[in-house]
């Protein structure tokens, strides 16, 4: 496959007056192949949005190499017309209608006006296109943002939290839209906190933590790499079954009245071992990893491990009453 996005050794540090330097990216790498739907995951503050902003030329990286559609980031302007993107929460004029907003964007980008109606239909806003944006819900504004990214019929679509504010029906529609675009050959990079959605729609993924890539690859492959060969077993005497597994050289633990057997490559070993010891199974279930469990493990954000986020909160005492403090982050 041809790489549509190539990022290698990306570094970015923000310099604040009060809290000091904040390392956002620390040698980050990512590759997105043509025609893929690629998930971009990470805890809050891990560097996802900074990566996207750097890729699109909205912030200057300190060092590293980036190529988008075969062009270096310095020459991004030459391929910008082939890329559609929404990063963070786009702002719109509340006193304009959704349709008028898209018409102005189409006019500015040299896009045929017919694309306005087509994109409104694609994101489910056809019946609300003439309503003022200020009357839109958060989910509707997010749909409008996606519509604006689709105006140019891009070859590469970059979506930062596209399902933000959407209800279950809206999330389902967004999933269908992503699949439809992918079937047309559009390469899509999605940054999202909805792990089950990433697992359903993405071909491959990259997980970032503390500014570094911690795992990447096809979704199925990443999940398979974290399969511990565990099975959940229900028996009448869990404690006795635990002893039988241990006596046979196996590894197991008790969990909420069930037996969890680990490191097993063939489930028949469990049935044979417990049957020989007189323990009859009433349930045997393979515990295959899902994306949520893998995400929590590789980012170190599983509850109870003392690290719940990549965000360095840098807590400071509140400013005295009547005095405002402004922190400025300088990019160069």
TrEMBL record:
Residues 5-235 form the ABC transporter domain. The lineage of its organism: Bacteria, Bacillati, Actinomycetota, Actinomycetes, Micromonosporales. Keywords: ATP-binding, Nucleotide-binding, Transport. SMART domains: AAA. InterPro entries: AAA+_ATPase, ABC_transporter-like_ATP-bd, ABC_transporter-like_CS, P-loop_NTPase. The keyword Plastid does not apply. Signal peptide: none annotated. The keyword Coiled coil does not apply. It comes from the Bacteria. Belongs to the ABC transporter superfamily. One of its GO terms (molecular function) is ATP hydrolysis activity. This is ABC transporter domain-containing protein. It holds the Pfam family ABC_tran.
């Amino acid at each position: 496959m041809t790489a549509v996005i190539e990022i290698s050794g990306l570094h970015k540090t923000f310099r604040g007056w009060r809290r000091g330097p904040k390392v956002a990216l620390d040698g980050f790498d990512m590759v997105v192949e043509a025609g893929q739907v690629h998930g971009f995951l990470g805890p809050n503050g891990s560097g996802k949005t900074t990566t996207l902003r750097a890729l699109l030329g909205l912030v200057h990286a300190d060092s590293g190499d980036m190529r988008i559609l075969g062009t270096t980031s310095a020459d991004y302007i030459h391929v910008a017309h082939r890329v559609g993107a929404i990063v963070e929460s786009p702002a719109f004029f509340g006193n304009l209608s959704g349709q008028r907003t898209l018409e102005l964007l189409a006019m500015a980008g040299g896009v045929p006006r017919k694309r306005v109606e087509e994109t409104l239909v694609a994101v489910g806003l056809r019946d609300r296109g003439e309503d003022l944006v200020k009357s839109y819900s958060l989910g509707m504004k997010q749909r409008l943002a996606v519509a604006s990214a689709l105006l140019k019929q891009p070859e590469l679509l970059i979506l930062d939290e596209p399902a933000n504010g959407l209800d279950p029906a809206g999330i389902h529609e967004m999933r269908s839209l992503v699949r439809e675009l992918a079937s047309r050959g559009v390469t899509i990079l999605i940054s999202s906190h909805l792990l089950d959605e990433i697992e359903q729609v993405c071909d491959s993924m990259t997980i970032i933590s503390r500014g570094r890539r911690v795992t990447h690859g096809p979704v199925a492959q990443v999940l398979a790499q974290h399969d511990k060969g565990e099975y959940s077993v229900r028996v009448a005497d869990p404690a006795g079954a635990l002893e039988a597994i241990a006596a046979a050289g196996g590894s197991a633990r008790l969990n909420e009245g069930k037996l969890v057997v680990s490191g097993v490559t063939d489930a028949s070993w469990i049935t044979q071992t417990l049957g020989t010891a007189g323990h009859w199974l009433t349930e045997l279930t393979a515990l295959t990893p899902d994306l949520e469990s893998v995400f929590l493990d590789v980012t170190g954000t599983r509850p109870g491990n003392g690290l719940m986020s990549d965000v360095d909160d840098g807590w400071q005492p509140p400013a005295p009453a009547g005095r405002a403090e402004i922190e400025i982050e300088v990019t160069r």
